[in-house]
Amino acid sequence: MANKLTPEEQEILESYENEEWESVMDDKSRLKYQTAAQAMFKKDKRVNIRISGKDLELLQERALIEGIPYQTLMSSILHKYVYGNLVDKSHK
Question: What is this structure's pTM?
Fold first, then answer.
């Protein structure tokens, strides 16, 4: 994937990589955000679905490209959809 950064973004990235940034988050805030993240990604339910073999094959291929398990990819897609973050590019 090509890295298309503006000059300002490139400057920020280089600054970060040179360890010129310091976190201002305290332990209480960090714990709050960690707890929220864990709750968000807690997988406490199991679902069985039937999909076409071709769809499963394409999902597995895409997951391989992304470097994640295909079940994780499927869960991520569903999560994005139900929260309105999955956008259909064909309807622009």
Answer: 0.53
